[in-house]
Structure formats: structure tokens, C-alpha cells
Amino acid sequence: MMNSQTRQTLWIGFGLLGLAVLLGAFGAHGLKNFVTPEKLVTFETGIRYHFYHAFGVVLLGLIQHLFPTLKVKTPLILFYLGILLFSFNCYIYVLTGMKIFAMIVPLGGTSFMLGWFLLAWHVHRFRN
Known about the structure:
Elements: H1 4-31, H2 37-66, H3 73-96, H4 99-125
């Protein structure tokens, strides 16, 4: 039986994947005539990392289910934060052209890295 925390993590992960598909379609079909090719590459980079880390959220949901005592809450928060700060700031930068959003992107990348490294640390220290 799946606990509520696992169900919530999976629900959010699948929702983030659906959102990545939606935004990716918008970028591929709606933006190509309105932004420069360089900005389209930036948007696609945001989409790619959005997908990677939405899959990471689903993976963490499955890990929660299989290994309930393994600590995944902080890596999850870091992935959510990374999607927000990295991917969404890529999207906003492309849509607005405001450099401040591009300057926030490295904080999201740092969140992604910390999430993966912290997960690796927790797995290394995990004793079932």
C-alpha cells in the first residue's frame, strides 16, 4: 500500500512532467516565430532540465515507496527549487528578455546539483 507522502510525491512528479510537455510544445510551436534562435535554445534548455528533474521527483517517489526510511525530503525540495529557479527563470527570461531572470538560473543549477549529491550521500549512508 502506498502512503500519502509517496502518493503526493508521485502526483507532483507526474504533474511536473505533464507541465514540461505542455511548455515544450509551446516552445516548439508557439515561440519559434517570436524569439531569436538563441533564446529558443535557452527555452529548450529549461525544458530539458525540467524533464530531467521531474523524472527525478518520480524516482524519489518510488524510492520513498521502496525504502521508507531513506531520507529524500531535502533532495525533493532541492529538485522543486531547481525547477523553479532554473527552468522557470529560463522560460521567463525568454518571454520577457529581462536579464535579472537569467541571473537567477545558476541558483537553480546549484539546487539541482545539491539535490543529486545529497541523495547520493543519503544512499551511501543508508542501512536498511
